[in-house]
Amino acid sequence: MAETEIPECITEHERILQEIESTDTACVGPTLRSIYDDQPNAHKRFMEKLDTRIRNHDREIEKMCNFHHQGFVDAITELLKVRADAEKLMGQVTDTNRRLQEAGNEVTAQTEEVIRCRIQQRNMATTVEKLQLCIPVLEMYSKLKEQLTSKRYYAALKTMEQLEKVYIPRVSQYRFCQIMAENLPKLREEIKDISMSDLKDFLESIRKHSDKVGETAIRQAQQHRTFLSTVAKQAGLDHYTKPVYSLNGRAHSHMSNGVLMEAGDEEDAEDEILTAQDLVDFSPVYRCLHIYTVLGDRETFENYYRKQRKKQARLVLQPQANMHETVEGYRRYFNQIVGFFVVEDHVLHATQGLVTRAFTDELWNMALSKIIAVLRTHSSYCDDPDLVLELKNLIVIFADTLQGYGFPVSRLFDLLFEVRDQYNETLLKKWALVFREIFETDNYSPIPVETEEEYKVVVSRFPFHDAEIEKQSFPKKLPMSQSVPQIYSQVKEFIYASLKFSESLHRSSTEIDDMLRKSTNLLLTRTLSSCLQNLIKKPHIGLTELVQIIINTTHLEQACRYLEEFITNITNVSPETVHTTRLYGLSTFKDARHAAEGEIYTKLNQKIDEFIQLADYEWCMAESDGRASGYLMDLINFLRSTFQVFTHLPNNNNDHASMSGKVAQTACMSACKHLSTSLMQMLLDSELKQISMGAIQQFNLDVIQCELFASSEPVPGFQGDTLQLAFIDLRQLLDLFMVWDWSTYLADYGQPNSKYLRVNPATALALLEKMKDTSKKNNIFSQFRKNDRDKQKLVETVVKQLRSLVNGMSS
């Protein structure tokens, strides 16, 4: 087994030695490691094999050196012989060269002289030829400098083009031409910068003076509209023609870099048709556009111009913070915007492609949105209708002016409807103050008329017609108070003021009629109605004033048809026209009358409560005074005098008579019911613990006076004993206690024909207990008297039965 392992180990060692000899020394490590990873003592056998291999290589090296040694010795010997011959040859060559040099020095000198002359001759000819090529280049460059100095930039650009394409290529090899060629782009940039500087000056100038351009354009539009209005009136036309402005005109003087020109005196300026080119020098724009076009950079110029104009548009559209305070603020704002777009319109038509219709439309749409937002915001701050009206006129002429230049302005006229609403709001606020002042200064008494002239003055201000009053002799009184003709006149003034806003809106008569009626309705239903409601609620307005207010609203209601006729006469629109808005004054004045009537009822009840508070009954008195209480007589006298006032209500026709009777009857019935309820509450007051029969008798006397008042017909129109029924509950309750008819009450309770049908068991029980307590207190020894004991037993029996009735009702 060991013998078979030795040959395998020797073979493996051979392989490792071959691998070491053929492999890079850096990779020997893994190979050597494999020796130590094999069988034990394998590295010793490998070392022996390695030593054997080294000895073999040493023998091969020694053999090779011995084989080549003799050839090397022979080669060295031959080299030493050649060195001696080479040194000899070198000496011969040096001597020959010396002799040759000495013989050719003279010939060389003469030859060099000839060559030098020939070179000079050739250089002179070349110089003359090149100078003939360079002189035109220098002349053109000098010409270029002169053109730049004289600011003839377009000619300078043409000269540069000739230099670059024709002259410089001929002599491009010379340094000065290279310098020229390098300078030409710089000169072009300089020309671009100069022209751009002129353009910036122009843009700055038109930004500062655009308001003058806009003012002129707006003045032309106003003159044109006035002219068309005159022609339309003469021709009997009722429509408006859109303005078209001339592009021809004559300028007073020219200017440089966009500086505004003088327009001469104002009279000449008004007679003259001035245009944008008359007021603004556009040559910097044309020049800059031409230069950039020649330089092939037109797109850059167009983008720059449009970008700058967009920035200027945003600046122009930015209003001053206090613009809404004065008309001049709005006028300056509109002038600047019109001036901006007039300039853009001129540039659009005078240049080809610098600005396009799409660009101007984009600018206008952006501006229009901003203008509408600004006007919507600032107009909301205006509380002066005159200022809002001036703003409307400015918006109209602003829209007409720009419409003449081809810009769509329909959104501005839509905005005017919002401004109209704002205008109406300011008018309503103003007229609310007017109405309040009229109501505050009114004396709420019929208008006295001393003479026919005074009567005619009143009738001229208010459409009042009454045949009976006209038959009366002077002096006489008209039923309404002084506020009625004043209110009517102010409503007409409001209609006139509202009509002013509708002028120049290019709307049909029907639309204007509709606007007037709607705004008038707002005045009647909101402003006047609110003022009337507030007036009625004021504490200092008494019953007399409330009655006069009812009279006034009646006459104002009758005058509404005259207001409709007034509007019809203004607009020439027939009231029978379809969709014509009607005035809502009828409902307004009816609501005010109802509120006044309700306030009459409330104030009457409050006055009754004041009298009731004066009542001072001695609830434990033995017997009555034999006459009604003083506070109640005063109350009845007050009611009598109060209902006399209702005779002043209008009764010149059946409608008014029925209305006045209804108000008086309702007020009287309300007063009687409230009085009856108050007296009943006084009897049943929880703080009142005891009531004597004498107090009941005194209370009965007061109720009798109330019944006598009701039966005396304080207000005509009641049928039978309708008014007395307001006290029926009190009457039956008092009769029950005065007669002490409990057997009848208890026997007939619940029957429809009961004598005491309106007496509630709970009410009777409460009052009976108050009287029961009084009997106990005043009759301490009543238990010793048989009659008193019987009566006491009867009361207790009645109380028990009443309680059973009350409990039965509650269950």
From TrEMBL:
Boundaries of every Exocyst complex subunit EXOC6/Sec15 C-terminal domain copy: 412-770
Gene3D superfamilies (UniProt xref): Dsl1p vesicle tethering complex, Tip20p subunit, domain D, Exocyst complex subunit Sec15 C-terminal domain, N-terminal subdomain
One Gene Ontology term from the biological process aspect of the record: intracellular protein transport
Protein name: Exocyst complex component
Family: Belongs to the SEC15 family.
Job of this protein: Component of the exocyst complex involved in the docking of exocytic vesicles with fusion sites on the plasma membrane.
UniProt keyword list: Exocytosis, Transport
Residue ranges annotated for the Exocyst complex component EXOC6/Sec15 N-terminal domain, each copy included: 49-218
Organism lineage: Eukaryota, Metazoa, Chordata, Craniata, Vertebrata
A single GO cellular-component term on record: plasma membrane
Pfam families associated with the record: EXOC6_Sec15_N (PF20651), Sec15_C (PF04091)
